[in-house]
Amino acid sequence: MIPAAFDYYRPKTMGDVIALLQEHGDDARVMAGGHSLIPMMKLRMADVPHLIDLQAIDGLDAITIDGGRITLGAMVTQHDLINNDGLSNAAPILSEAALQIADPQVRYMGTVGGNVANGDPGNDMPGLMQCLDAQIKVVGPDGERMIAARDYYESAYMTLRADDEVLVSIEFDAPAGGHAYEKQKRKIGDYATAAAAVQITSDAGKVGSASIAMTNLSDVPVWSEAAGAALVGTACDDTAIKAAVAAMLGDIDPSEDNRGPVAFKRHVAGITLSRAITRAWSRTTA
Ligand code: FAD
């Protein structure tokens, strides 16, 4: 398929991007890597008469690690996440997750900002950012504002970002303790049937804190506060992991689709989370 005709813009300043968004309203969309948007346009599932390319805006592709605070510019690619040594040391869950997205060709183009902004329940970065308790910075006609990743998603493809706002960066504290990003998919390069992002700290042999987020098991990513709480203070043994899985299953709401019926997805979600917790715990240092 080829997309419907559209006007293409490549502004050099964020002010020009926002002016175009205001001018064209619902008929305009920004494009980052284009690896979600262009396929949607080709399938005629997205109609974008005015396409605004962000590639010429300076300063959106920086990775900053400053005093334990990490900031990812919106145009940082999934490839960048995998190949930045400082980032791999400070937050190794990012590269572990990015390596499970699509294939190298997609990862050279696909951006963190596009993945987080998109609102597709199958995208891997939103759950990951909820696990990391990230803050999302958007800029619009009224200036900048921060939105917590855990509040950002309203329903599939609907987020708290207004149509005339652009996501410019995502920031979070470098996570402590052990991590794991576990993803079950039908084949290499596929979106998740279920995925779990887990960060755990240990305190004198017990779980000190745990953050757990699930992907593609509801119409939004699910940060399961109850699942994390079920682990805290335990030795992260089988009983505790089963309790965390039970709590997580109370928070997700999968739908039947070509990745399987609901019962199968819930089963896969449980196995995926168990594996992620076990691996994250094995990586903790007291
Ligand atoms: P684009 O496609 O350019 O944009 C996506 C949406 O976000 C659009 O609505 C756009 O308007 C909006 N947007 C983009 N940037 C901004 C911004 N800065 N501010 C506001 N709005 C913005 N993703 C996964 O997570 N997991 C997978 O397993 C996976 N598999 C894939 C397999 C294939 C074959 C392909 C083609 C893609 C796959 N993807 C997967 C999607 C890929 O990771 C996309 O690149 C990513 O989701 C979107 O990033 P992008 O930069 O390409 O965004």
Automatic annotation (TrEMBL):
It comes from Pelagimonas varians. It holds the Pfam family FAD_binding_5. It comes from the Bacteria. This is Carbon monoxide dehydrogenase medium chain. InterPro entries: CO_DH_flav_C (IPR005107), CO_DH_flav_C_dom_sf (IPR036683), Diverse_Substr_Oxidored (IPR051312), FAD-bd_PCMH (IPR016166), FAD-bd_PCMH-like_sf (IPR036318), FAD-bd_PCMH_sub1 (IPR016167), FAD-bd_PCMH_sub2 (IPR016169), Mopterin_DH_FAD-bd (IPR002346). Its EC number is 1.2.7.4. GO terms for molecular function: anaerobic carbon-monoxide dehydrogenase activity; FAD binding. Keywords: FAD, Flavoprotein, Oxidoreductase. Residues 1-177 form the FAD-binding PCMH-type domain. The keyword Oxidoreductase applies. The keyword Metal-binding does not apply.
